[in-house]
Structure formats: C-alpha cells, structure tokens
Amino acid sequence: MLSPSPISRLFWTDKVWSYSWQAYVPTQRDAMMKAAMERYIPADPQVSVMTQNTVNWSHLAHREVYLYFPSVSPSRIS
C-alpha cells in the first residue's frame, strides 16, 4: 500500500513526489539534460564518467570505467 509501485495507493497520489507516477514521466528538463549530455560528453567508452542520484542514462553507462557519486574506487564494467 505504501510502496512506489503502480498497484499501491501512494503511487497514484501526490503526497510524496519521488514515489508517485510523476517521478517516472519524462519532463522537458530531462530532455534538456539528455541533449546536453549527448552534446558535451563523448560517447567513447574509454572516457570515464561519474554520475550521481538518478542520472542514469545509457549514453553515460556504456563505459569501461563507470564512477558513481559518492564513490571511493572505480567500478569496471565487463
């Protein structure tokens, strides 16, 4: 009943934004962020990147070394 699942009551209310349906609908801000990533971050898998929070997009994750924030050491993608 209180989980961020489409079958929960909380998912369909606006009480907690991060658990509601609105958190999963792409916005204009998301589109702008993706466009900026494509423009300024090379697609080369040799270029390592560091992301934080919910910025998980395939353009960034397809790397040989993927760093997440906060991170102590790199994670090798095999």
Polypeptide structure, described:
- Strand 1, helix 2 (58-61) and strand 2 (65-68) form a beta-alpha-beta unit.
- The protein has 78 residues and is α+β, with helices and mostly antiparallel strands.
- It is 22% helix and 12% strand.
- It is built from two helices and three strands; from the N terminus they run H-E-H-E-E.
- It starts with 27 loop residues before the first helix and ends with a strand.
- The model has no long low-confidence stretch (mean pLDDT 79).
- The protein has helices at 28-40, 58-61; strands at residues 49-51, 65-68, 75-76.
- It has a three-stranded mixed β-sheet with strand order 1-2-3, with no helix packed on it.
Structure at a glance:
The protein has 78 residues and is of the alpha+beta class.
Strand neighbour order, sheet with most strands: 1-2-3
Topology as H/E string?
HEHEE
Helix content: 10-25%
**Biggest pleated sheet:** 3 strands, mixed
The structural class is alpha+beta
Strand content: 5-15%
| Rg (C-alpha, Å) | 16 Å
- Low-confidence residue ranges: none
Cα shape: elongated
Output the number of helix runs.
2
N-C termini distance: 38 Å
| pLDDT averaged residue by residue | 79
Work out the number of β strands: 3
How is this fold's topology laid out?
Layout: H1 28-40, E1 49-51, H2 58-61, E2 65-68, E3 75-76
Parallel strand pairs: 1-2
Antiparallel strand pairs: 2-3
Descriptors for this entry?
single chain; alpha+beta; three-stranded mixed sheet; 2 helices; 3 strands; 12% strand; elongated
